[in-house]
Structure formats: C-alpha cells, structure tokens
Design goal:
With 155 residues, the chain is α+β, with helices and mostly antiparallel strands. It contains two helices and nine strands.
Length: 155
Amino acid sequence: MKFSKTLSVVAVTLGVGIIATEAQPVHAKTTTHAIPKTLQGTWLGNYHDDLFGNVPVKYRLTKYSFRQGSSKASENADARTYYVNIKKYRATKAKSFLFKVANKANQHGYWKLTLLSANQPVYLKHVKHNGKTALKMYYKSSDTNKAQTSYFYHQ
C-alpha cells in the first residue's frame, strides 16, 4: 500500500512537471518594439565625453535601427549602426550591435533603449528646447557613473 501511494505521488509530480515544462515556452515568448515615431529622424548635437569634451554627433533613428556617427562628413566612416533585437537582425548581427526598446515610455516620458551587450540604458525623449524640436538624451556615464543630459536638434 505504501509503495503504491509513493508511486502515485511520483507519477502525479512527474506529470505536472512535464505539463509545466511544455507550457513555459508559450509564456516565455518575447516581443520586441520598434523605435517610436516621435524619436525617429536625423538629430544633430554634441555628445559630452569626459575624455574628449563636447564631440559633434549625428544620430539617425529609423523604425528598427539607431545610427551613431560624427556630424563631420570627414569622420562618417566611423559611424556605427545598432539594430532592434528582432528576428531579422538577431540571426545576422552580433549581439554587440543589438538593442531593445521599452514597450512604453516611463513616468517622465523617456523611452528606454538598452544595448544588449553592455546592458547600459539610454533614455530618449522628444522635447522643445530653446524653442526648437529636440531629442533629449539622458544616460549614466560608464566612466564616472554620473548622470549626463544632452540635446540633439532635428535636421
């Protein structure tokens, strides 16, 4: 009697474990989000770096990519393009060039973009600054761990 009770408990536990394992992938499905239309476009401004000071930068944001480069034409060869972590790019790009976009803006109106390889978020917000349409960027410096804010203007 004791043996059959133990066997029944083991069988039920094993059955529940198998069902739970099979059900997990359905719930573990990840969704990716595009860059919001309000952030898309070409933006020019200065990026502040503790090592180099103010560096002129040009950002180009499209639905699924973020291109960062110099606003000087002579230095455009160093531009880097990062891609939203969607199936199309996940299969063809290195993890160091993939990022994810938050599903909604936070309570302050910032959209969070996180580079997967560094897990370092950048917060972007569409604002009016000095009477012009601007992209406000907020991030923590990886060197000094201090908060930095920069404004980039629509081209």
